[in-house]
Every structure is written in C-alpha cells, then in structure tokens.
Amino acid sequence: MKLRYVRNAVLFADLSEEEQKKVSDKMRLVRYREGQTIFEKGDTSDVLYLVKSGWVKIITGESTVLASMGPGSLLGEADLFMGRSRSTGALAATNVSLWALSDQDLEKLIAEEPKIGVKLSLAFGSRIAQLNYYLVEKSLRGITAFSDLSEEELLTIATRLTVEEHRRGDVIYRSEESAEALYIIESGRVKLIPVVSGEEVSFVELDAGAIFGEMGLLTGRPYAESAQTITEVTLWVLSRKDFWELTGDYPAIRVALSSRLRAHLSPDDQALAVEHLKGVPLFADLPRGAVQGISKQMLLRHVPKDELVYAEGTPGDALYIIESGQVRIVSEAESEREVFAHLQAGDFFGEMALLTGKSRSSAARAETNTNLWMLYRSDFDELLVQYPAISLALSRTLSERLSQADQRFVERHLRRMSLLVGLSSKQLEDVSARLRPVKYRSGEVILTEGTPGDVMYLIEWGRVEVLSKTDGRSRVLALLGEGDFFGEMALLTGSTRSATVRAVTDVDLLALYQPDFDELVLKYPTLAVTLGRVLSQRLNRAAELLTGELAGVAAGARVAPAQARSKPSSDREIVPATAAARMARPRIRQTPRLLPGPTLRRGLGNTAAWFALRSVGAKLRLVSVFLLFVWLCGISAPATVISAFPSNSLGEGSLAFLQTPTATSTFTPTSLPTPTATLLPTETPIPPTPTPQPVAIIPTDTPTPLPPTDTPTPAPPTDTPVPAPPTDTPTPEPPTPTPAPAYDFVLVEGSPRRLGPCENEGRHHIMIDVVDAQGNGLPGIKLEVAWAGGSAEIETGGKTEIGPGFVEFPMYHGTYSVRVLGARSQVAEGITVEIAEAETCSATGNQVANSLYHYSYDVIFQRTY
Fold first, then answer.
1. What's the number of CA atoms in the CB half-sphere (13 Å) around residue 610?
2. Burial of 109 (0-12, 13-18, 19+ CB in 10 A)
C-alpha cells in the first residue's frame, strides 16, 4: 500500500519502479490526533510527509489557514529540498496518518542512487539540498579544475548549481553567442564544434564529468564553439550571475578554472591577432600568410588578478600578447624587488622564449583580470617547417634582443658600482662579459679570513659585513651595500684573505676572477686609479682605527699599568664592535694634539710598553699589518696604478726611470763567434789576466765562452760534399719553397660534431668558431649557412663573451651546410636536426635534451696561413 502512495505522488512519478520502492522503504508511519501540531513555522526542516489518511491544515504563524491537504498530498517538501527552515506550520485537522521521510534517510538514499536526487531535482524544478554531499564528493572533486579547492569552496559551487535535461541532438549553445553559463555533464555525451572561417570542423566529444563553456565566463568573450548533445544529457549549470558572485567571494575558484585552461582563438580574434603580431619585431617583416598561420596556432589564456603568468626560472615555453587587462614584469615573483615594465592591452612579452628557449630571467604578474593570446614554442617550431622565412627573422631578432639585454644590464646595474665609475659604455660591456652572477643567503659566509683568494665581488643587491678576528673574537670592520665591492686585496697582493665577509641579507653578487681582474686593471687605467683611491681610503681608515686603539691603550697604561696587565683587553671584551668603532673615532681626531714635542717621545714609549705586553702571536700580527700597510702604500698601490699606463704615453714630468732601459745579461746583444765542438778534446785556453770581461752568457757544452780561434769551421757549399764538423748549434738551412694550401680555411678534425644531450639541452643551433693558424678567434669573418631553398649570411664576433671568432645560427628543419665567404673554404655538410631519436641527459633528467628538430652541432674552421 505504501508503494502505491509513492507512485501516485507527482514528485516521485518519474522515478523507476525500483527507485520508487527504495524511497518507500525509507518511509516510516507516524500518527497525529486532531488539533495536534505537526510542525511550526521556523522549525528546522528535517522531514517531508506523505498523507496516508485524514486532513492537515497548512497555516501561517498567525494561524491563518492557507490550505487543507488530504490523502496523497506532500507536506514540507519544499522547505526540506531547499535546506531552509519551515516557512509555514502544519496542524492536524482530523486524526491523521502520515508517511515520513527524514532528511538523513534521503541523503543516504541519494548517496547510493544519485539518479534519484537528480530526478527529484528535475521534478522539483531546482537542485535539492540533499544532493550537496554527492555533488561535492562525487562530482565536483573529480573535476581536474576543481581538485585543489577547499570543502567550503566546493560546497559553495554546489549550492549555486541548477539541473537541466536535453534530448539527443539539442543545441546547448552556438558559437559567437554571449557566454551565459558553464556546464558540467552529469550523464550523456556532448560534442564541441569549433568554427574556422565560418566552416564547422572536426568536433571534440565530452563524457560525464566533463566541464565546458567556462572560458566564455572567465574571459567575458562569446563562446568560441558550438555545443550539441550526442545522447540524452543531464547537465549541472552555473549561470554567469552566480559565477561572478562566487568568484568575487572566492577568487580561488577563478584561479582554479583558469590555471589549466586554454582555448583556440575565434576567427574574429585571429584576424585581430594578425594586426598585433605585425607589431612584434620578430614577425614584423614576415609575409601576411605566415603571420596568419601563426595566429591560427595561438591560444586564449585567462589569468586572474594578482596571479602569475610565469615565474623566474620556469621554462620559457610561450610568447604572450595582452588582449585585455594589464601585466607587470618584475625581477622576482616572491619579492618583486624591481619592476621592469607595466604592460597594457596590445603589448607583448615573453618573446625570448621563442628566440632562445632558455628559462625565464624575470617574472610576469597580472595586475587585473587579464586575457592573453599565447603562442607555445612547440607550435612555433612546427610553423618553422612551413615558413622557413621565420628562421632568418628569428636569427636577426635574437641578435638584436641579446644586445639590448646586455645594454640594459650595463646601464641598470654596472653604472651603480663604485669600482666602475668613469668607464665608458663600451668598457662597461667588456667588464660585463667577464662578470659571473652569484647568490648567497642571509648568514652565509662568502669569504673566510686566512684562505687563498682568486675572486673579488661587486654587490648588485643586498648587504654584507666584513669581520676580522682579534684575540679569538670577531669584530665588524665595515658594512657594505649595493655598489660596493670586496675581496680585491687578495687579488692585488696574492696573499690570503685578510677578513671574513658574511651576508647580512640575501645578496646578489657579481664575481670577477683573478685573470680577468689582472687584464682589466692593465687595460683600463681609470679602473686602476679608482681601485687605488678606494684602497688608499680603506688603508687610511684602518690606520686611523689602529692608531686610535693604540692611543687608547697607551693612555690606559700610563694611568694604571697594573690594571692593564691584569685585563689587557677588558674594554674590547664588553663593548660591541660597532660601539667600539664609534668610540675609537673621537680618539683619532685628538691623537695629533696628544703627542707634540716631548709628548711624542712619551707616547712612543707608552706604545712600546703596550707592545711589549702583547703575546707573541699578537706581536707578529701587528708587525705583519704594519709591513703590509707600508708595502701596499709604498709599493703595491703606486705600482698597480703606474703599470696601468702604457710607457709610451708618458709626457713631460713623467718618471724617467720607467723609460730608462736597464742593461741585463739576457738582452745585451754581443757579437760572438758561433760555438763549435772540436774533433778531439782540447784544453780551453784561459786568459792570464783576472780582469772580468762583460760577455753575454750563452749555454754551450764548453765551460767558458771561447775566443776566436783557428778552429775548423764548416766550408762553404761546393759541388763536392765536404763534411762539416759537428756543432751543438744547428746551422739554419736555406728555406725551401712551401706548397700553397688548397684552402684558406679548413675544417678541424672531427668537425662538424653533433653535441651530446647534456651539452645541448634542447637547443637547435650550429655553433661556429673561426680561428687562425695558432688557434686564436677571428672576428669579422663572414660565413654562409645554406639549406634547401635558402641561405643566410652571418659574421663572427657578435658574442665576444664566448669568443671573438664565435657565431651561432638556429636550425629548424632540413639539412644545412656552412662555408667561409670570400675565401677558399672547405664546406661543413650534413648538418641536420631531422633526427627522430630522443636522447636523455642523465645529469638533469631531461628526456628530450636531444629530440626531433632539437639537435646542435660544433663547427670549427681554421685559417691555414
């Protein structure tokens, strides 16, 4: 009988017989007497009732009767399904019997049979609250875009969803229509049909659990495709209004939806993208057909406000054009220490990813909700196969952008360095090529006192402290910040480090190693002068600090010598280093007035007494410091500065001794007979006089140089061979004609050489070096790189940081050859990137370090004369 009541109820009419039976099994019979309250307005809605017999009055809070419900009627279902308190009351008009279905039993039933909840929602006209658990745990959490959202965020989405049913073949929406909702497939299949140039193309099929239509809501753009049902379909729908309210309260929902979402551009957007692409230098000179091909490969990406487009250090995998919104380019994603640019709609960024494929050197963050058109590097590489002209544009733009990047680095960073003031832009570029960036964390030790040193550092950002140990205790000698430098003393003197340097904050440093340092100091006199001036200032400060301490200790010795012996360094033990430095400086200014005339002798005596009280180790260190000071001020610093000036540039007033040639035995030209060896051993006559004669020392087998004698010498050449006596000095033979080489430039053995996976790491370049006969790089040499259907002319010397004779050329498909132009040159042939085999770099784990279209080669040409 109970099942019959369930079947007749309109709410349960669309359930299958089995589903109706499961509902009836969960119901229990309850009875109320006439006049008894069944529920009141404002009560919690936790039960729905199906009237078996009798009558029930539906009343307002003021006991006004709204309706009378008889057998087969449902009571309280609306409030229960909507998850709200009772909006009316119910009173038994007669004795009544009711079938009751509790909220908990209904939730359990829907968890077992979700279709019951969906059908009840359709019959009710809205999603019922008892479906929330199912939607959160079984439906929404399984969608990739929502997998990282919290329970609260998922529940909020579930409460906004409505349900729709569509028959087979129904159109859910058409392309170019305004985006009004996103859809989640509960059951059935849907196809998405993109439109290209007004013609429908192959479609994408979606099954239960898939989400679609979300790009339109995120970007505010029309739908880019049509959606049509393949079978009967049940959909969960989130309207545009609810979406905007949700994402306003929970921004993470927008982030989650957009993080992995990409979509092809609509035909209208592709046409607009062509115009924007022509403004990108890389594509400015390409034929329109090539640019249109690029626009078809571009994708639409949405980035929510304050979210990263990419971070520094991430792979450079795409170029971006801003369709709408704003983006800022910053040095670091975490700290945003430096803002490089603010970009608006129509601007582009990230193009170096297409040029080099290297990791990002900066970060990009959306300042507003932003729509981007992006071109992946992998898609770009495929376009190069279709449009070889892009290869030339790529090579040209790469050279220009790298040059601009170097110039920006020079102007933004090196101009601030105190060591480099006075250098021209060209000189700074030379210095920049020799610097190596280094990072240290706060608290890390950069240099250690007493260790050998072959590198100095310039501080690009951050602060460091210079420490020195005295009697086993460290004291701060100086705090250095942006633009300062340290570590140069060991490079100048060849001695060990005189102090320890530790990072106070995270620091970015530029390292300059000994060979480059020596060359730069000799090459640029301005650098030597600046270095000498800074060293002089530092030595003066050190001398003042030392003098102040000596004067203070001497004064203490005069007043209480016994106390000085018992506590030789009590002041320094309890005063922090920075405080001690502040206390020392006033004494320095007073020192000259404390020691005039007789006071000088007394001060020296006191200093001597103080010195006598020091330990042996302290005495040795003080003597070493004094000698080092004298040597640096009197010899090293002046010599370093003077040696930086070429001798032929000295004029009036110059130091004459620098240009006076000094006679040495090694370079004094002395006319001597050719040393020979006699056929039989003879005694060498020794001159009887003891007067020494200046003779150049030339190594021979004879103990002393021989004066001219009648010793047989080789006869002049005749037609009759005359054996010449053996000599220790080889007699030069007349030159023989050398056959002219067949080529002016030849390939060295093993060239061209294909790079291994760890050498290449995904590049696709020909690395060319042109050297002379001695192996030195030759700048300004023109070469031709040729491939099927085209060629390009390149020139060495564009990357002096790698080598004066170096140049590289990017490859994209086909087989290439290289030769030197304007000379007889061998040809490097068979250079190809069309190798399907992928090779893994074991050091980095990169499984495509070498792969199709991503192979590189070394080519070395050597001049033969």
1. 23
2. buried
Range of the domain at 573: 435-588
Alpha-carbon distance 262 to 260, whole Å? 7
Tokens (6 digits) for 627: 């000698």
Long-range contacts of 826-831 (CB under 8 A, 24+ apart): 826/743, 826/745, 826/746, 826/747, 826/861, 828/747, 828/751, 828/752, 828/859, 828/861, 830/752, 831/752, 831/766, 831/857, 831/859
Q: Smallest Cα–Cα separation from 863: which of 804, 800, 790, 778?
A: 778
- Give the containing element (helix H, strand E) for 475: strand 473-480
Q: pTM for the full model?
A: 0.48
- Whether residue 305 is found in the same domain as residue 248: no
Q: Which pLDDT tens digit goes with each residue over 74-117?
A: 999 999 999 999 999 999 999 999 999 999 999 999 988 999 99
The amino acid at 60: T
Q: How far apart are CA 626 and CA 543, in angstroms?
A: 9
Closest CA to 739 of 853, 637, 864, 603: 864
Amino acid of residue 783: L
> Which residue, 261, 296, 313, sits at the end of a domain?
261
Q: Do 221 and 200 form a contact (C-beta atoms < 8 A)?
A: no
Task: Output the furthest CA–CA distance in the chain (Å, rounded).
Answer: 159
Amino acid 732 reads: P
- Using CA atoms, how far apart are residues 477 and 499, in angstroms rounded to an integer? 9
Same domain for 286 and 208: no
Mean pLDDT of 576-583: 35
Per-residue burial over 139-163, b = 16 or more CB atoms within 10 Å of its CB, e = otherwise: bbeebebbeebeeebbebbbebbeb
